[in-house]
């Protein structure tokens, strides 16, 4: 998840275009995404991705855009939405029963990566469906918006796996529940 230094996943008026997006950060991000069996999105984040990545390799800014666009189109995706119909690019929509379906897939060993959506993250945290937190903290204070953690989270059991710093001043903190070691 992308968050500001003051803990917001979205800025005022649902602004989501404030995170740093550079090749160094995105290369690390893509490396992590390739380990997932499925990418999991909230509707707003999916719409942002679907508006750009399916054709980003047609007029590429860099070789990374070509690589990420090809990965994104092919990767299995789940989108949580009550209104999205007929999605493309290897995408399945989850409407009602999202928590039960994610729990079923998780119990079956599917490695899902949540790529965005403060509401989605809050629901998964509330239902104890988060095994790892990979927080990309961006060097910005938003002052207001949608917080990533809407209520207190018991972090006493989390173990720090690693911390990465990027030239853009973004810091990735990776935490894991020790009893949920992923193989």
Entry summary:
By secondary structure, the chain is of the alpha/beta class. Helix content is 28%, strand content 24%. The protein has five helices and ten strands.
Descriptive labels:
183 residues; alpha/beta; Dihydrofolate Reductase, subunit A; four-stranded mixed beta sheet; four-stranded parallel beta sheet; 5 helices; 10 strands; 28% helix; 24% strand; Riboflavin_Biosynth_HTPR
> How would you sum up the global shape?
globular
Unreliable sequence segments: none
What is the CATH architecture assignment?
A: 3-Layer(aba) Sandwich
Helix/sheet category? alpha/beta
Beta strand %? 15-25%
Using DSSP, what is the number of strands?
A: 10
Q: What is the highest CATH level, the class?
A: Alpha Beta
Mean of residue pLDDT values: 88
Q: Biggest sheet, open or closed, and with what strands and sense? A: 4 strands, mixed
| Helix percent band | 25-40%
Our count of helices gives: 5
What's the arrangement of strands in the largest beta sheet?
A: 1-7-10-9
Instruction: Please name the fourth-level CATH homologous superfamily.
Output: Dihydrofolate Reductase, subunit A
Which fold name is given in CATH as the topology?
Dihydrofolate Reductase, subunit A
SSE pattern, N- to C-terminal? EEHEHHEEHEHEEEE
Roughly how many Å apart are the termini? 22 Å
Count of structural domains: 1
Rg, please? Answer: 16 Å
Oligomer: single chain
Pfam family, one: RibD_C
Domain Bacterial bifunctional deaminase-reductase C-terminal: 1-170
InterPro entries: DHFR-like_dom_sf (IPR024072), RibDG_C (IPR002734), Riboflavin_Biosynth_HTPR (IPR050765)
Protein name: Dihydrofolate reductase
